[in-house]
């Protein structure tokens, strides 16, 4: 698998590998995400987009997009991360590569406030349309919490 | 004078469809755009049940999250428990006692059978009527009795613990389980006789809602719905977790990728789950059911993504720890959410009555869709 990361680094110089986790992982610049994902799907066998989510690292002023890929049927796993500026988080949509990204990107948009240029129907999916804010941001305050601190 | 079809004036209308499927009442709405009887466009409207379980988890200790996982796919609580506790165990490097591993397998597979029985009953109800609904629901009660016997509850079991299971099985459990397994082939034969072979049922389901394997993979469809497209992909085999690598079982597949195959595959999977349970009963060792774990669970900094084969597909838990006693972030990847996301693709172009069949055949549960 380290072979895979080295090969990808040759193709995409901006890309970093991460060692020692529960699976091989890559950190990709946002503007290279589409090209890297295309390569992974079409040439490296990662035909299944297993998950899309995001983590709010408020103290670092970053939102980290986390993608998990599977190569089916042998079940090889890969994690791909993209660091985004927390003030204007934006990353290209993967819907053209995997339609599975459609609902999952909408979920991240709704709950974390990340924009996905290229998404065909980017609107809230779990919260009502008139909802304010993005509940999974670390600074989102629940009504019940107001006044508790 | 004959009128050519294209000369007829038709107007598209929008229709709020349902709720007709048992798991959609009050929590799901499909907005269909219809041209006559043809479904032109499907919009899934969800979110009515969204309880923010991921957000809640950030404000609870690792142990306190377990009861929330029951309420994801509440038709297969044991499986949701299992996926979550295994994710925490992986992050902490905790080894689970052998007896607990075997009990987990027994409970997880019972949960799978119970979940499949609901799917079979609901789809039979949606397509052909009440008569066929009763047998699977009746048999499922026996599984819930086994759960109640062990942990006191039937649906929201909270049975798994970080490091083991909450309690050992009581003395009457194994005989009752044995009796259930002995009766199961007869139950499946009854369901097959009532539903699977029924001409009306076949006519309504065969060739309906077809999806080919490549499209299914691209849409992220997993579990029985994927295996009905011909691919024997099952995480219990492909990347075994727990002690699944010790058991012999087959991964049934069917080739048409239609609603009928999505139905039949679940009956085939029940038989395989029963096979696994029998082996786990035979190999069940004595000993403790809980590892020694710290009273306050504090996994080291880091992240883990743990996926298991849920009843409805791949169930994933992405867990980020900052070293504290609460998850920094817990993301739950639920199969129902993604499978439902593919429903428009499966349904568009078909007839309105087929929508009823298709939604039943992909087997969603909204507790898992909305989380």
TrEMBL record, chain A:
It comes from the Bacteria. Signal peptide: none annotated. GO terms for molecular function: NADH dehydrogenase (quinone) (non-electrogenic) activity; NADH dehydrogenase (ubiquinone) activity; quinone binding. The keyword NAD applies. The keyword Membrane applies. GO terms for cellular component: plasma membrane. Residues 27-145 form the NADH:ubiquinone oxidoreductase 30kDa subunit domain. Its EC number is 7.1.1.-. Keywords: Cell membrane, Membrane, NAD, Oxidoreductase, Quinone, Translocase, Transport. Pfam families: Complex1_30kDa. It catalyses: a quinone + NADH + 5 H(+)(in) = a quinol + NAD(+) + 4 H(+)(out). InterPro entries: NADH_DH_suC (IPR010218), NADH_quin_OxRdtase_su_C/D-like (IPR037232), NADH_UbQ_OxRdtase_30kDa_su (IPR001268), NADH_UbQ_OxRdtase_CS (IPR020396). Gene3D superfamilies: NADH:ubiquinone oxidoreductase, 30kDa subunit. It is a peripheral membrane protein. It is found in: Cell membrane. NDH-1 is composed of 14 different subunits. Subunits NuoB, C, D, E, F, and G constitute the peripheral sector of the complex. NCBIfam families: NuoC_fam. NDH-1 shuttles electrons from NADH, via FMN and iron-sulfur (Fe-S) centers, to quinones in the respiratory chain. The immediate electron acceptor for the enzyme in this species is believed to be a menaquinone. Couples the redox reaction to proton translocation (for every two electrons transferred, four hydrogen ions are translocated across the cytoplasmic membrane), and thus conserves the redox energy in a proton gradient. Belongs to the complex I 30 kDa subunit family. This is NADH-quinone oxidoreductase subunit C. It comes from Neomoorella glycerini. The lineage of its organism: Bacteria, Bacillati, Bacillota, Clostridia, Neomoorellales.
UniProtKB/TrEMBL annotation, chain B:
NDH-1 is composed of 14 different subunits. Subunits NuoB, C, D, E, F, and G constitute the peripheral sector of the complex. NDH-1 shuttles electrons from NADH, via FMN and iron-sulfur (Fe-S) centers, to quinones in the respiratory chain. The immediate electron acceptor for the enzyme in this species is believed to be a menaquinone. Couples the redox reaction to proton translocation (for every two electrons transferred, four hydrogen ions are translocated across the cytoplasmic membrane), and thus conserves the redox energy in a proton gradient. One of its GO terms (cellular component) is plasma membrane. It is a peripheral membrane protein. It is found in: Cell membrane. This is NADH-quinone oxidoreductase subunit D. It is an enzyme of class 7 (translocase). Belongs to the complex I 49 kDa subunit family. It comes from Neomoorella glycerini. It catalyses: a quinone + NADH + 5 H(+)(in) = a quinol + NAD(+) + 4 H(+)(out).
